[in-house]
Amino acid sequence: MNKIVEIKNLYHRYDQDLILENVNMEVLEGEFLAIIGPNGAGKSTLLKIIVGIIKPLKGIVKVFNKDVQSLKEERKWIGYVPQKPDLEKYLPLKVKDIVALGRRVVNNWQKLTYYDFEIMDKVMEDMEIKSIEDKIYGELSGGQQQRVLIARALAQEPKLLILDEPTVGIDVKTQNKFYTLLRDLKKQNKSIILVSHDIGIISKEVDRLACINRKLYLHGCPEEIQIHGALKELYGENFLLLTHKEE
Ligand SMILES: Nc1ncnc2c1ncn2[C@@H]1O[C@H](COP(=O)(O)OP(=O)(O)OP(=O)(O)O)[C@@H](O)[C@H]1O
């Protein structure tokens, strides 16, 4: 199966602090990988390296079989939902303007077409924000803002979706809808990387889990991680990981 992301011997530091140490992992086409680990473990940093926003200190990072720093057109195939960006402070944009950014990235900032609007409508309906499309983003609740950011990333129709704690502040109903959406994307052979602290939910949804705390502790299916006691090693507590993955 095609490797969409391949990371070898990755190291990164901020100032003198080593944040990632010898991380090796991969994400296959159509695979749903969740990254878990305690606060400050380096998860967001790893995502930013995969997206190409941060250049690592050392190591190989390939996305779509190319060095991530050399991606050109392929960069548009990556949809990224960052953790708590404070867009609203700077931009008085409406919901639909932010979702449109996802389409503009793909169509090279050309005038939006009928097709672009169709996609925007679909993702806004999926994230239940169509009714607030004319509202100013900065005036929405935290959960509503998060849905807009997810819709923006989905509007790109990405081949690789990278999500940094996307469901924080989102109500349970919308969270369920969101996971259903992720399942649909997986069926379309899209790859997904999700950082989340919600171990219970994600262990039901994902193909593999990567446990990170500076180093990669384990990279395997949720059941395998439970057997190896990686969560205990990671969090220093005895974790009961509930895996009810349906066939
Ligand atoms: N731009 C930066 N400059 C300096 N240090 C940073 C920077 N970004 C992150 N760090 C530090 O690097 C470490 C890892 O941060 P990171 O955000 O990657 O962790 P995380 O696993 O995503 O944490 P959380 O679960 O709390 O979101 C933290 O100690 C953080 O303070």
UniProtKB/TrEMBL annotation:
The organism's taxonomic lineage, starting at the top: Bacteria, Pseudomonadati, Dictyoglomota, Dictyoglomia, Dictyoglomales
Database matches in CDD domains: ABC_Metallic_Cations
PROSITE patterns: ABC_TRANSPORTER_1 (PS00211), ABC_TRANSPORTER_2 (PS50893)
Domain ABC transporter positions: 5-238
Designated name of the protein: Metal ABC transporter ATP-binding protein
Family to which the UniProt record says this protein belongs: Belongs to the ABC transporter superfamily.
Any Pfam family hit: ABC_tran
UniProt-listed InterPro entries: AAA+_ATPase, ABC_transporter-like_ATP-bd, ABC_transporter-like_CS, Metal_Ion_Import_ABC, P-loop_NTPase
Native source organism of the sequence: Dictyoglomus thermophilum
Gene3D superfamilies attached to this UniProt entry: P-loop containing nucleotide triphosphate hydrolases
Domain of life of the source: Bacteria
GO terms of molecular function: ATP binding; ATP hydrolysis activity
Entry keyword set: ATP-binding, Nucleotide-binding, Transport
